[in-house]
């Protein structure tokens, strides 16, 4: 039976949610002067649809038992998830300025012990999907209707643990698991598709018994349709949404940088980035 998503938290549009997530990420990046900003800007639309359309949770009670779980396998994307958690009201906006500093609840790599709404510690890449399988099995035993969303990257597809997780999820017919792959074709060693060729990605997951959709991860309408289809699928199988995203989406001069896996931004450029993001919102 289809399960009802989180009721809308307000009348703010998903486009505006994504804009605010991007703005939060830029403000946090400015605190350190560097970071995984391009990934945060690229995945903002996916996070907006996840948190403000698809997921069920209570901002005032991040550990509510009936919540949907969002697992961030890519620990260095923490800045993106913090930006979404701030927009969702799970983390206070006042904490934004503490990003990456000593004793902050917002370390540069996500840690579940520190941050409300951070379900797992995901710094060691490739383990999130296997953890998601365990979460889903536990929820099944509790007869819970909650979903588990697991975000991982194309750079993690070279890890054998990802495919062990994919195989296990299919074996257990985990219809409460929705995987999300961020395909931005960039990792520390260069283009992800050249480091470990992962295409044809749809066919690979289909061969493991998953329901597969591939969409433009910066198209809000396409994402809404994909998340709805994944949640409402009647077949007892895990579901995956492959999201092709653009690194640094919304800030043209950062989009154009050849290597933007880890960005170092000059002090005067942060203001320029925010101004361009604001201008794109009103254009």
TrEMBL record:
Q: Which Gene3D superfamilies match?
A: 3.40.50.970
Alphabetized Pfam families for the sequence: Transketolase_N (PF00456)
What domain of life? Bacteria
Q: Does the keyword Transport apply?
A: no
Q: Which cofactor does it need?
A: thiamine diphosphate
| Residue ranges annotated for the Transketolase N-terminal domain, each copy included | 30-261
Going by the UniProt record, its keywords in alphabetical order are:
Membrane, Thiamine pyrophosphate, Transmembrane, Transmembrane helix
Task: Enumerate the transmembrane spans.
Answer: 36-54, 74-92, 112-137
The UniProt entry's sequence similarity note says: Belongs to the transketolase family.
Q: What is this protein called?
A: Transketolase
Q: Organism source for this protein?
A: Microvirga tunisiensis
